[in-house]
Specification:
This protein has 16 helices and no strands. The chain has one domain.
Length: about 325
């Protein structure tokens, strides 16, 4: 791989405060220790065997997220206020601790426009409508279709809606909290989708703690593949384990994504313009969408998502 190719692959993975005094900067790299055992401890000690699969899924997701949050916070050496640190833990889903905790002047942070506020609100409402519709239809025979509708509504409600509103609110207060989603449908390639547009929280985490340390040791190509392998294993743990089936399919999905990125940035891929233009968009659409059932396989939809919708319908 040429130096130019290495730079291209490297670019893939990149990327209400009280007037209290800043806390001293501390190197917190011991946060690594909590990342691996936390989810297992939560499942083994707190989750009874009879716990519904969807509740187990949420327990795992929250446990892993808290482990990642702890890791980024412990590693950050930025001086910040106590209230900003609390806000990072409780009021912001992102994982770029340094950006959020830095006490920038409000004038240096671009405030959201009225149009952005409206867009975030519309996505939140639309997601709530779709999710609510899925709950109402949860007992219909078409379980897969209803489950997919519920997942679409939940992702739109949370990741595209509420989290975007939170970003707008923080930026209006001068805090560097960029939206987690950056118009994924506008992705020009697979690498553009994963590197710049989809879920910047997880991207920031894998780039900081996997890609950068590994790239110098095993090269950027293998570092990218390791990053996607990690993503696949995490999703397998949260998706397949509670569902009791479909093991390996989420990991295969993410390995396919990494392979497509390596192909895009290879000499052959560049000759075929697979990283830009209509070819890049076409490859992205095929690689991202065609195997989506590998990621959210029918075991997960039928054993986790639909029972969750049914439980919410009973509550409602």
């Amino acid at each position: 791989m040429s130096c130019q190719d290495s730079n291209c692959v490297t670019a893939i993975a990149e990327k209400v405060d009280a007037p209290d005094q800043p806390l001293p900067a501390v190197s917190r790299r011991n946060g690594w220790l909590l990342l691996t055992p936390l989810p297992t401890v939560v499942v083994l000690l707190l989750a009874p065997a009879e716990l519904p699969a969807w509740e187990r899924m949420w327990l795992l997701a929250v446990a892993i997220y808290l482990g990642c949050k702890w890791l980024t916070w412990m590693d950050c050496s930025v001086r910040s206020t106590f209230s900003r640190n609390v806000a990072y833990w409780l009021l912001w889903p992102g994982l770029d601790a340094a950006a959020f905790l830095t006490l920038d002047s409000p004038a240096t942070i671009a405030a959201p426009t009225v149009g952005e506020w409206i867009l975030a609100a519309v996505k939140t409402i639309l997601g709530a409508v779709l999710f609510g519709t899925a709950i109402r239809l949860a007992d219909l025979p078409a379980a897969l279709a209803v489950g997919w509708l519920g997942m679409l509504g939940m992702i739109l409600l949370l990741h595209f809606g509420l989290f975007h509103l939170l970003s707008c609110w923080w930026r209006s207060r001068g805090v560097n909290a960029v939206p987690l989603m950056n118009f994924p449908l506008a992705a020009r390639s697979v690498s553009d989708f994963w590197g710049r547009r989809w879920n910047s929280a997880f991207r920031d985490l894998t780039h900081r703690f996997l890609f950068r340390p590994l790239a110098g040791r095993i090269g950027p190509v293998w570092a990218v593949m390791c990053g996607f392998l990690f993503s696949g294993l995490v999703h397998d743990f949260v998706i397949s384990y509670p569902a009791g089936g479909g093991y390996g399919w989420p990991t295969a999905y993410f390995l396919l994504q990494g392979s497509a990125i390596v192909l895009e940035r290879s000499s052959l891929g560049k000759q075929g313009s697979l990283h830009r233009g209509w070819r890049g968009r076409t490859l992205a659409a095929v690689v991202l969408v065609a195997p989506i059932a590998w990621l959210f396989h029918h075991w997960f939809v039928e054993n986790v998502v639909v029972p969750m919708l049914l439980a919410l319908k009973e509550v409602g």
